[in-house]
C-alpha cells in the first residue's frame, strides 16, 4: 500500500465454491507521520527521537492526546494527527508538558537539527509536523525602551528560517521540543567601550557632536560568553564637572540616544529611562551612544542582567561641550580649543574661567553658557587676568576674528561668550588723549574709553606677546653733574622720546604717554632756622610755580598745560614720527627753581618707561646743594 495513511485493513479469503468457508487477517501499513502510540489517530512508525547534526537528541513532538493536561495549550491537525502546540518560554501559563526553564533548545540547536534534515525532509522523511515553527530558548527581544523581554526565536524546520515571536501572548502558538541539557545561564554582565577611558576625568569622553561606542557582554561564572541573555540599561541624571555647580538647565541638554548596529535609535533622555534587550549569538551587543545637545555632564550608565538584577556593570561617560574649556576649574566638561587662529595670523589662547588666573586683582567674572568667564579692568597698570597688556589681542586681531566668524558665530564655532565685550590690548589716540579699545564680537562694532580702562570686559590673550619695544627719554640740555636736564627759568628744555624694537630699529607710530611728578625744591624752604652744614629735605610744590607747558615739536602739536596737582598728573599722549622719535619741549615760566621728574611710557606696554628730571634754575638762588 504505497499510498497508505496508516490504516488497518482486513484481508479476507473465501472459498469460491463455498462462501461459508472463509478466513481473515488484518494488515497495517504504518506511516512516518504518526507515532506508534495508542492515542495516535493513525498507525505510524515515527521515530521516538531524532539526532541533530551537533549530536543533540530530541524527542518527537507530542500529540495533543498525549498531554496529561491541556491547560494553556492548543491543538493543530496536520498529517492526520492532532499535535499539541504551546505558548513560548516567556508565557506564565503552566502545563506539565512545557519545557522546563532553560530547557528550550537554543536557536542554533534548531538550526543544527534543520541542517541534518533540510528542505522539509524532517517532515517527508521523519514525519514531524511543520505547519508551525518550533520554539527556541534564545531571546530575540529587540533593543528598545522598556519593552518586555518576551520575544524568542522560532525556527521553521521546513525551510530553516527563523523569526522573532512574542512568546507570552495568548495567540502565540508553536510546536515544542525540549533539550536534554539546560542552556548556559548568564551570571555576569560587563558594560565597556572600545574607546579608551580618559584618566583625567575617569570617564569615556567624546564631543557632543560625536558618539561613544558601547559593548554589553554577558558571560557565565567562568567568563564564557552566554548568548541571548536579557538585560536592562539605565542612566543617571548627570553631574557637572564642578560638583557644587547645579544651576545648569538640562532641558534637551541631556537627551541621549542609543542605537544598536541593527535596529532603531532609542531615546535615552531621563534618569528614569530604561532600555532593554538581549545580547546576540556571541554574547555581546554593540551600541552607539550619542548626546547631540549635551551640556557637558558626566553620566553613569548601568547595565544589569534581567534574570540576575544584582549582576551589574557601570560605565561613566562624558559628552563635552564647546562652550566650556577642558579645565578642572570649569563648571562643565568641555572641549573649547586651547588655541585658535584668525585669518590675519593672530593665534589666540582661550579665555580663562574663574579660578584659573594666578591673581584675582582687577578681575571680575561674567556668567554665560554655564561658565564664569574672567573679565579685567585697569590692565594698563599691571598684569591682570591671563596675560600682560602687550599679550592681549589687538583690535585688528579681534576684527580678523570677527570677520572669520561674523554675527556672533565665535560662540557656535569656537565656544566664546558673546554677551560681553572684549578689551583690546592696543590703544587709540584722539588728539592728545589715549582711548582704550574694546570689541563686540556679536555685532563687530568697535568701542573706546578714554584715559583709564575702568570697565570690566572680557580678555583674550595671544599665545605670544607682541614684539617687545624699548623706550628711552633724553634731552640735549642734559647736565651730568646734576643728572638732570637743566635750563634757566624762561628757557625751554628740549626732550626726545625714542622707541626701538629689540633689534634696535626705530619704531614709527607708537603711542607714547607722558606724565610728570610733583615739582620739588632743592632743599628746605622757609625754615626759620637752618642748621649749618646740613642739606635740607626737598619740598613738593603743587601751586602755579610748579606748572609747566608741554609743546610737541615733532610730530608738531599744540602746547598744553603739563601739571600735577594732588598727585594726579596731566596725561599727554602722542605718536612717534617716522624716525621713531617724539620731540617736545618743556617750560616752567613761574618756577622758583624746581626739579620735576618727567616719565615717558609706552601706552600699550605700561611697564616699559623711562624718566628724566627737568630743572629750571632761578637767578635768586646760588648753585649750591645748601640752597633751598
TrEMBL record:
Q: Which residues form a coiled coil?
A: none
Q: Which Pfam families match?
A: BIg21 (PF05688), InvE_AD (PF05689)
Q: Which domain of life is it from?
A: Bacteria
Q: Where is the Bacterial Immunoglobulin-like domain?
A: 209-322, 490-618
* Residue ranges of every copy of the InvasinE Adhesion domain listed in the record: 35-178, 325-461
Q: What is this protein called?
A: Exotoxin
To which species is this protein native? Salmonella enterica
Q: What is the organism lineage in this UniProt record?
A: Bacteria, Pseudomonadati, Pseudomonadota, Gammaproteobacteria, Enterobacterales
Amino acid at each position: 500500500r504505497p499510498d497508505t495513511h496508516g490504516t488497518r485493513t482486513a484481508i479476507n479469503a473465501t472459498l469460491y465454491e463455498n462462501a461459508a468457508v472463509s478466513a481473515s487477517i488484518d494488515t497495517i501499513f504504518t506511516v512516518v507521520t504518526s507515532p506508534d502510540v495508542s492515542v495516535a489517530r493513525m498507525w505510524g512508525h515515527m521515530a521516538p527521537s531524532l539526532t541533530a547534526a551537533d549530536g543533540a537528541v530530541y524527542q518527537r513532538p507530542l500529540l495533543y492526546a498525549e498531554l496529561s493536561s491541556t491547560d494553556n495549550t492548543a491543538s493543530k491537525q496536520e498529517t492526520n494527527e492532532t499535535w499539541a502546540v504551546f505558548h513560548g518560554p516567556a508565557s506564565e501559563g503552566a502545563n506539565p508538558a512545557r519545557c522546563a526553564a532553560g530547557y528550550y533548545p537554543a536557536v542554533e540547536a534548531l538550526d543544527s537539527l534543520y541542517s541534518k534534515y533540510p528542505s522539509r525532509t524532517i517532515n517527508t522523511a521523519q514525519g514531524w509536523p511543520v505547519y508551525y515553527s518550533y520554539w527556541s530558548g534564545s531571546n530575540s527581544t529587540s533593543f528598545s525602551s522598556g519593552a518586555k523581554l518576551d520575544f524568542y526565536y522560532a525556527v521553521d524546520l521546513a525551510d530553516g528560517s527563523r523569526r522573532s515571536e512574542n512568546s507570552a501572548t495568548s495567540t502565540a502558538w508553536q510546536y515544542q521540543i525540549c533539550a536534554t541539557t539546560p542552556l548556559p545561564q548568564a551570571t555576569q554582565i560587563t558594560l565597556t567601550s572600545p574607546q579608551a577611558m580618559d584618566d583625567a576625568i575617569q570617564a569615556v569622553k567624546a564631543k557632543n557632536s560625536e558618539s561613544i561606542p558601547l559593548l554589553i557582554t554577558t558571560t557565565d561564572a567562568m567568563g564564557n560568553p552566554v548568548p541571548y541573555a536579557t538585560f536592562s540599561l539605565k542612566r543617571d541624571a548627570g553631574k557637572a564637572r564642578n560638583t557644587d555647580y547645579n544651576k545648569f538647565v538640562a532641558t534637551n541638554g541631556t537627551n541621549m540616544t542609543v542605537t544598536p548596529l541593527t535596529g532603531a535609535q532609542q531615546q535615552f533622555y531621563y534618569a528614569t529611562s530604561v532600555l532593554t534587550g538581549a545580547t546576540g549569538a556571541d554574547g555581546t551587543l554593540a551600541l552607539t551612544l550619542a548626546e547631540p545637545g549635551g551640556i557637558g555632564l558626566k553620566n553613569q550608565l548601568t547595565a544589569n542582567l534581567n534574570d540576575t538584577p544584582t549582576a551589574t556593570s557601570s560605565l561613566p561617560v562624558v559628552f563635552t561641550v564647546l562652550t566650556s574649556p577642558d579645565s578642572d576649574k570649569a563648571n562643565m566638561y568641555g572641549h573649547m580649543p586651547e588655541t585658535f587662529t584668525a585669518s590675519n595670523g593672530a593665534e589666540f589662547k582661550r579665555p580663562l574661567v574663574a579660578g584659573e588666573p594666578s591673581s584675582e586683582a582687577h578681575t571680575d567674572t561674567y556668567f554665560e553658557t554655564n561658565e564664569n568667564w574672567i573679565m579685567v579692568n585697569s590692565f594698563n597698570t599691571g598684569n591682570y587676568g591671563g596675560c600682560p597688556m602687550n599679550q592681549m589681542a589687538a583690535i585688528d586681531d579681534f576684527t580678523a576674528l570677527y570677520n572669520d566668524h561674523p554675527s556672533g558665530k565665535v560662540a557656535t564655532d569656537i565656544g566664546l561668550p558673546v554677551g560681553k565685550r572684549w578689551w583690546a590690548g592696543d590703544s587709540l589716540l584722539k588728539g592728545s588723549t589715549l582711548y582704550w579699545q574694546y570689541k563686540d564680537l556679536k555685532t563687530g562694532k568697535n568701542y573706546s574709553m578714554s584715559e583709564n580702562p575702568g570697565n570690566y570686559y572680557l580678555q583674550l590673550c595671544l599665545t605670544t606677546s607682541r614684539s617687545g619695544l624699548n623706550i628711552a627719554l633724553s634731552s640735549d640740555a642734559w647736565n651730568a653733574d646734576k643728572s638732570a636736564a637743566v635750563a634757566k627759568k624762561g628757557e625751554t628744555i628740549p626732550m626726545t622720546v625714542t622707541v626701538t624694537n629689540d633689534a634696535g630699529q626705530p619704531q614709527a607710530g607708537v603711542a607714547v604717554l607722558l606724565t610728570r611728578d610733583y615739582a620739588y625744591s632743592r632743599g628746605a624752604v622757609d625754615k626759620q632756622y637752618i642748621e649749618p652744614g646740613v642739606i635740607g629735605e626737598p619740598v613738593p610744590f603743587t601751586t602755579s610755580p610748579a606748572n609747566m607747558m608741554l609743546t610737541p615739536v615733532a610730530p608738531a602739536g599744540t602746547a598744553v598745560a603739563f601739571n600735577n596737582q594732588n598727585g594726579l598728573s596731566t596725561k599727554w599722549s602722542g605718536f612717534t614720527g617716522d624716525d621713531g622719535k617724539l620731540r617736545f619741549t618743556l617750560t616752567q615760566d613761574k618756577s622758583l627753581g624746581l626739579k620735576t621728574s618727567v616719565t615717558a611710557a609706552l601706552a600699550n606696554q605700561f611697564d616699559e618707561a623711562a624718566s628724566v628730571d627737568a630743572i629750571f634754575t632761578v637767578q635768586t638762588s646760588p648753585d649750591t646743594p645748601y640752597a633751598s
